[in-house]
Amino acid sequence: MPPKADINKAGWEQSEFPILCETCLGDNPFVRMSKQEFGRECGTCARPFTVFRWNPGAGMRFKTTVVCQTCAKTRNVCQTCLLDLEYHLPTQVRDTALATVNREYYAQNQEAKFAGGENKLNEGRASSAGREMLKQLARTEPYYKRECNRGNDCPYRHEMPTGFFGRNDPVAHKILTGHAENQGLKPPEDESVMSLFLSSLPASATEQTIRTRVIKSLPAIDPSSLRSIVHVTKSRCAFVNFNDRTSAERAAEAWANGLDMDGERLGVRWGRSKNSSVPTPAVTATTVT
Fold first, then answer.
1. Across-strand partners of 265?
2. CB of 82 within 8 A of CB of 91?
3. Distance CA 81, CA 86 (A)
4. Looking at the DSSP assignment, which residues form a beta bridge with residue 52?
5. Closest Cα to residue 10, out of 1, 20, 19, 18?
6. With pLDDT > 70 as the criterion, what percentage of the chain qualifies?
7. Strands 48-54, 63-64: parallel, antiparallel or unpaired by DSSP?
8. pTM above 0.85, yes or no
9. How do residues 120-167 score in pLDDT, each as one tens digit?
10. Which domain of life is it from (predicted)?
11. Is 206 exposed, middle or buried (0-12, 13-18, 19+ CB in 10 A)?
């Protein structure tokens, strides 16, 4: 009985060739692959899928696919290293810049959406600040060091953990933190500072429109983490106050290249400590409650 006709295999994935980045595929034009239909469960959706295994080059370790093609298409990532295919960045970095949420989809319901090469991640709606951030961070080489010359004597694991798909990624966190610091948004040493200062607001901005834009630009942060918005209309600036320092730091990372609002690029800086003697232009940037 053909696999598609078997009710127990309905929705399982079969494919002829994997979706890979150039680094995982290797530079050998005559690479040979083994193919095993329904060889393992997808690391994201748990559906059985066709597993490919190959050696990208002499002296390198064998590689294998760890997620199904539907999940790879949904997230626009390599089936092996799980890095974004366009920017070669961890998905958490890309999602932070584009203000998208990493959700696990029911894969069997997504296949029809890819007809004609439709990309689930529509970057056209992303802010210019987010696209600028990705272009600055884009690399031709993945960030994960995946080759080792110590062979079997190496005490470390050499496979990406399955399901490592854009949440709590230490590599992504390091990239985002470093980029924010390079843009002048290094977190202040005083950890009681949990506010960010927005300047150059549009003349039409209100407390409610600012709140809406802030929440929309930070989909990975729970809206309840936002304590208050203090809008200084005359100075066209605002303080965004969070309930915890972690949320404030994640916001600073997401807004490292500024925050777009109604066609305007807002300036972003950390608020000042109440004991700080350094004022912010036009208004003293203290942590506002």
1. 260
2. yes
3. 13
4. 35
5. 1
6. 72
7. antiparallel
8. no
9. 555 444 568 888 888 888 865 544 445 555 555 554 445 554 444 566
10. Eukaryota
11. middle
Radius of gyration of the chain (CA): 23
Weakest-pLDDT range from 25-29, 240-244, 250-254? 25-29
The residue whose two tokens read 């997504």 is: 110
Single out the residue of 23, 30, 173 nearest to residue 91, CA to CA. 173
For residue 175, give the amino acid letter: I
Read off the tokens for 159.
């496979």
How many residues are present in the chain? Answer: 289
CA distance 276 to 279: 8
Beta bridge partners of 195: 241
Separation CA 105–CA 48 (nearest Å): 15
Mean pLDDT of the chain: 79
Q: Which strands, in side-by-side order, build the sheet including 33-41?
A: 33-41, 48-54, 63-64
What does the pLDDT average to over 222-237?
A: 95
Using CA atoms, how far apart are residues 204 and 262, in angstroms rounded to an integer?
9
Burial group, residue 209, by CB count within 10 angstroms (0-12, 13-18, 19+): middle
Question: Mean pLDDT highest for which of 7-11, 94-98, 283-287?
Answer: 94-98
CA atoms within 13 A on the CB side of 36: 12
- What HEC string does 211-261 produce? HHHHHHHCCCCCHHHEEEEEEECCCCEEEEEECCHHHHHHHHHHCCCCEEE
With a cut of 70, say whether residue 280 has pLDDT above it: no
